[in-house]
Amino acid sequence: PKLAGHTECIQNNLNPKFTTALIVDYFFEEVQNVVFQVIDVDKAKGNSLSGDSLGQFECALANIITAPGGTLTGKLKKNGKNYKGSITIRSEE
User: What is residue 15's DSSP assignment?
Assistant: First the structure.
């Protein structure tokens, strides 16, 4: 898998709202699966993304693009099972 980018770190917040946009090319004729990982980073180490995993959300990019209002909410999963929390992803053209 290719890393498209990562957001800013938000400290001590149970409901963070990230503002960093990730630019991804969308190809209508291809299935493009994406994975969003949520990580609790206790101490920043440069560009390191190490920390405790809070779960991940996987979907096709098309699901985000075609969601009503370009907004998709999904449950975080950890080890293949539903985990605490959810993630909301917004798309723009």
Answer: S
